[in-house]
Amino acid sequence: MTPVLWPMSSDVYEDMVACLLNHLNRETRRIDGKGGDGGRDVQFELPGGLHIFELKSFTGRMGKVQRRQVARSLTKAAKLKPVRWELIVPIDPTEGELEWFKDLASGYKFPIEWRGKTWLDTQFAERLFIWRYFCEGVKAEVLDLLREMHKEEAGLANGMPDVIDRARALATRANELDPFFTFKLELNGPRTKISIIPRYEGALEDRPITTQIEFRFDTNTPEGKAKFEEFRLAYDLGVAAEFSPDFISKVDIDAPAGLGGTYTQVHLTMGPGRNAAARPLDFEFAAVSPTGEVVERLSLTLAPESVGRKGAILVGHDRSGLLEARLVFGTDPVPGNTNLHLRSGPFVPHELLEAVRFFAALHAPNGLSVRTTDGMLSSQPTTCTAEPLLDPLFPEFVANLALVQAATGIVREVGGDFERNDLANAAAGAALIRGEEAHQPGTDITLTWTGPVRGEQRRRLADQPVYLSAEFVGPTVVRICGVEYPIGRKRRVELVGRVDPEVAKMLLNDEVEVTEVVLHPEPGTLLNIKVVER
Question: In the chain, pLDDT over 90 holds for what percent of residues?
Fold first, then answer.
């Protein structure tokens, strides 16, 4: 490497050193001094505060004029209350200059430091490509290298291995030369894709990439009108869109490494638009009655899917992953800006419960309103559909099963398909857990006597309905969607029934010993069950 010849224009010096500082710390930010830099050329935020760099291209010695400029810059910078200030100048201080600098530092509470020629030489020796880019005219070499990637005349005697080696060598060489960007080369059949990747935060500010596109849309034709609408959504909301050369007159690009230029046969892909500062937002969706009362609410976190010049599209889902939300916020009204979809599939009841209750309330006369939880963004209620979006039995089933699973400690994912008896068993299980009676269709019950039954008692059993109230010790289990849930250890059962007709005949004859009877439930009656011990 040829030693750096430090007498150079202040613009080149500041550009080169600022780029170096960006590589030493990716968070640094260049300050344009045209409007007054406030005593700092480059800055970045430390955990404790602002770190400021002042870049001076002085050479030779630090004379009175130069000292006055440095002191003036430091005085301006002090107003910003930095935690550290550094002077970067290609001069190694003499003893006298160092004493002056120490005296200068004594007037400030924050530390100041002098980075001189030796420090600069060392840093650029380790980052040769930065120095070469600014001082040896390597911009042209970068341009030539990237253009070389498109040439077909180069010898490729060994087939694909030569192609791979040549592409790798060219991309590697370009990455060693450009201080602002790295380049990623991808070959896919007839297509070549070159990705431009910033080396540090702020590289696009130091070396902007600009594009001017001249579209042509014949909005008198259905195709032209549809393409114009695609463009509008891509521009306004950042929605991904593609345009063939039929809709593009020309594209002017100002990009690094000779990748810019004017193009007329262009297939253009736009979006999805991104904004590095965009963050997920917490939203509250509410089903609102005509009087403004909130019937049900649902909180969701939505993340930006695309960001445009006039708005953004945000998407998210609930804990179950089954309720999906898509929300469009923009400066202009957007029809159908809120889309909620509850898809079928396996679910864990307690995760889905909030969503199904909310979804079940989305019907007339209720309306739907949306706002961020901090209240910064909100919408007026929109009209809901006349018919409920869900079978009313489904939210009840999910709530009952969530209660059963929580009480028994058996949390299971439930398949999207279930039968009518699963609904009934979930309702019965939830009622028993709440200490209520559960009512189920009656079933036959067999009674066995340990002693003889005689006379009038036998005749009443044969002729009249029997009211049975009995307590059973043992697990009370409900089966829901193939899973058995133990509800209690002791239960009371009540049933109204009649003795089997054949057994009734035997009971009327005292000579016939009967020790066991079967009770059939009376038509239209139910079996009442209550858990008396959990």
Answer: 26
